[in-house]
């Protein structure tokens, strides 16, 4: 019995050492690539389905509005191409979200999926998402300004932002803010406004 106990302990310790070595070993590049392809393909599929749902929602949102509260009722069907899930998700992103600017979400998700699937450089993804969100908010704000009676265009986000700014800076102030964001003003690009940029190396004593 003592011999079997010692042998069991020895085998158990050896198994633990093998597991630790496996954890320390770097992951196989093929496995990383497989996961990258799987994740990228999943994101691209998600972007495609979102684009279909959003397009269908813009065509049938009035008819599907009454089905939002009957999500678990199997007898009620939505006209959205993705049925109730498509109607609920589209309603969240478009009507309760940023309106027509929600189309930026499938674009950004699809762009990420394509870069991962085809193993392209992903160092610009963060910048793409940052500028995409900025343009998304600007687009929602602009639609809320020009179409204040159509909350579907700007979504609740754009509509509420316009109401907030209108109460404090007025519609002229909103237009100024909107055009400032559109112009993409920053200190590095102020030299493009007409005045030549001054370089310290050009100054001669």
Short description:
The protein has helices spanning 2-24, 29-65, 83-98, 104-117, 125-146, 151-183.
Range of strand content: under 5%
Q: Uncertain segments of ≥5 residues (pLDDT<50)?
A: 1-10, 189-205
Q: Quote the average pLDDT.
A: 79
Net shape = flat
Largest sheet: none
Helix and strand composition category? mainly alpha
Distance between the termini: 95 Å
Radius of gyration: 27 Å
Query: How many separate domains?
Result: 1
Descriptive overview:
The chain has 205 residues and is an all-alpha fold. The protein has one domain (34-188). Helix content is 71%, strand content 0%. It has helices at residues 2-24, 29-65, 83-98, 104-117, 125-146, 151-183. It starts with a helix and ends in a 22-residue tail after the last helix. Residues 1-10 and 189-205 have low confidence and may be disordered.
Topology:
Blueprint: H1 2-24, H2 29-65, H3 83-98, H4 104-117, H5 125-146, H6 151-183
Keywords:
disordered C terminus; 71% helix; single chain; 205 residues; flat; mainly alpha
């Amino acid at each position: 019995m003592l011999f079997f106990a010692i042998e069991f302990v020895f085998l158990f310790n050896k198994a633990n050492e093998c597991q630790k070595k496996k954890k320390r070993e770097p992951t196989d590049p093929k496995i990383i690539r497989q996961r990258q392809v799987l994740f990228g393909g999943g994101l691209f599929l998600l972007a495609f389905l979102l684009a279909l749902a959003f397009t269908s929602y813009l065509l049938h949102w009035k008819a599907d509005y009454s089905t939002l509260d009957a999500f678990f009722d199997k007898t009620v069907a939505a006209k959205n191409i993705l049925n109730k899930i498509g109607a609920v998700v589209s309603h969240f992103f478009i009507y309760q979200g940023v309106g027509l600017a929600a189309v930026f979400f499938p674009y950004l998700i699809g762009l990420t999926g394509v870069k991962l699937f085809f193993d392209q450089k992903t160092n610009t993804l963060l910048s793409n998402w940052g500028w995409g969100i900025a343009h998304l908010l600007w687009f929602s704000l602009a639609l809320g300004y020009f179409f204040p009676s159509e909350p579907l265009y700007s979504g609740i986000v754009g509509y509420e932002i316009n109401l907030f700014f209108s109460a404090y800076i007025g519609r002229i102030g909103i237009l100024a803010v909107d055009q400032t964001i559109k112009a993409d003003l920053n200190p590095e690009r102020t030299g493009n406004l007409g005045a030549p940029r001054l370089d310290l190396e050009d100054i001669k004593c």
